[in-house]
Amino acid sequence: DTGVSQNPRHKITKRGQNVTFRCDPISEHNRLYWYRQTLGQGPEFLTYFQNEAQLEKSRLLSDRFSAERPKGSFSTLEIQRTEQGDSAMYLCASSYLSGSGNTIYFGEGSWLTVV
Amino acid sequence: KQEVTQIPAALSVPEGENLVLNCSFTDSAIYNLQWFRQDPGKGLTSLLLIQSSQREQTSGRLNASLDKSSGRSTLYIAASQPGDSATYLCTGNQFYFGTGTSLTVIP
Asked: What is the model's pLDDT at position B69?
């Protein structure tokens, strides 16, 4: 079990450019979550998937944010036309929802700096 | 929307002390209560999960309890060590997090 993997770990981009982050969940985990975290704050929930179905996306910050999970495996989070306020750490987590609970496991995060 | 409050926001204790961190929710409908630690610049590491049918969980020097009627959880750390220094976060149902308690254990 290699844990949740996120790439790239760091991204510096110019305002207005598009960026994409990838998350590879723990193998066989059926749920995948995306969060944003800024300095001094807890993670802010953005969206989540159960298998390939996106069950909640109303919390995405704007229509510039979108996420996919094709085939229920890895996921991507795309931010279009980046703004300086998008600078943050983007966290991915995965879990296996079962009758014994839903422990979520986080990746190391992807840092975004918009200049 | 669920609001999660963690008290205290910061805590500094000498090594060896026992301590309690608190987490409270505005909506007591919690069916998964999970505690994490986060080291600076890193992701979150899961510590304990309390399911809705449970009242507490223990792992080593850590004990977490959940009182669903009041919407409160506590994390008890026994015999604190400098390696426990980190930010501790709680979440109910995976969607809402508190802002965390920053713990410093002084050698």
From this structure: 86
